[in-house]
Amino acid sequence: MRYSALEILKQGLTGNKGWRPAWRSPEPKSAYDIIIIGGGGHGLATAYYLAAKHGLTNIAVLEKGYLGGGNIGRNTTIVRANYGLPGNSEFYSHSLKLWEGLEDELNYNVMHSQRGIINLFHSDGQRDAYARRGNAIINQGDDAILLDTDQLRDMLPYLDYDQTRFPIYGGLYHPRGGTARHDAVAWGYARGADKRGVDLIQNCEVTGIDVENGKVTGVQTTRGAIKARKVGVVVAGRSSQVAAMAGMRLPIESHVLQAFVTEGLKPCIDTVITYGMGHFYISQSDKGGLVFGGDLDFYPSYAQRGNLPMAEHVIEAGMTLMPMIGKARLLRSWGGIMDMSADGSPIIDRTHIEGLYLNCGWCYGGFKAVPGSGDVFAHLLATDTYHENATRYRLDRFSTGHGLMDEEATGSQHNLH
Fold this sequence. Notes:
The chain has helices spanning 5-13, 41-54, 88-100, 102-106, 124-140, 149-155, 182-195, 239-244, 308-321, 370-383, 397-400; strands spanning 31-37, 59-62, 78-79, 117-121, 145-148, 170-174, 178-179, 199-201, 206-212, 215-221, 224-233, 252-264, 272-275, 280-284, 289-300, 330-341, 347-350, 356-360.
């Protein structure tokens, strides 16, 4: 079924009884060419591009719960391409270009809104660092504008510019950045993959990975054994656990990242704003809620929930930056399990086991990377060659030390990325 204004009018006049399910619920087959473990944004995007770009349809996506129930629905919905290092810069640029054509390609409203992102800075040194980053972004072919305090006051009059500890010196503006509806992205890719013949199998937890003579042969699941020539692991914060089924130890730690949303308010914030001294970021959803987040909880965990001390820390930063939000009532919070790599950058690579592939280590960059990640991982699975925009994401950089990408210059400490 193709969605259109005419179809909505037709269904509205006939009692909305003609809508068909967006995707099937098939029984798993005994064997597939490729199995994708993980039915989140990255896994669904990978399956979609395998079918749409490479013509491969004998594919299954295995999800232990329901599609989109993990990190794809547990984030602050930010989309951007303002990275500064070679390797990351061209990848996120590629991903943003895919975002910009995604709704037309999927015929699905993912509510992609290019409302712009402003990264605030609070010292001369931080201004210099953001100027360098802005130049790197422009050299990559994307957009960046360095704003002074007067320009910021015109755009964001509600900020506390004269706070004693961290006065606002200016900001780096990325106009093409913005937000999207997180779960709609999963639904759009699921619908597109299913339409092309991919089997999306929910409530099917993988309990083992079968390896014979150094080659993957399939997986064990709660719904029986399934054979496959290739297996892609795309499970975000569960990456270490699933890789361990194949005897692998990854350079990954899993940490909780909390997010929050307030009650619906009248429109007041029309961009995404990040606080350079408080690791606080905020935007306003189309329903009016203020959506914001901050630092990790700083301890390894697999719990999809946060704790009160970090909630207090995040809200304290928000109140310091924009005291106007103090009267807004907090509606809900949630936690996502972040797969934090040792250098703050992802891993998209083959493993030493023939036919087993990894896509993990996204740290804070997972949601904005969904289209790009799916595209380049599908390319790797289909051709066994690295996509030109993902050549730096090799797994062996952690064993050789060659090619490490310390995007935030915080060293090899997982919870600082």
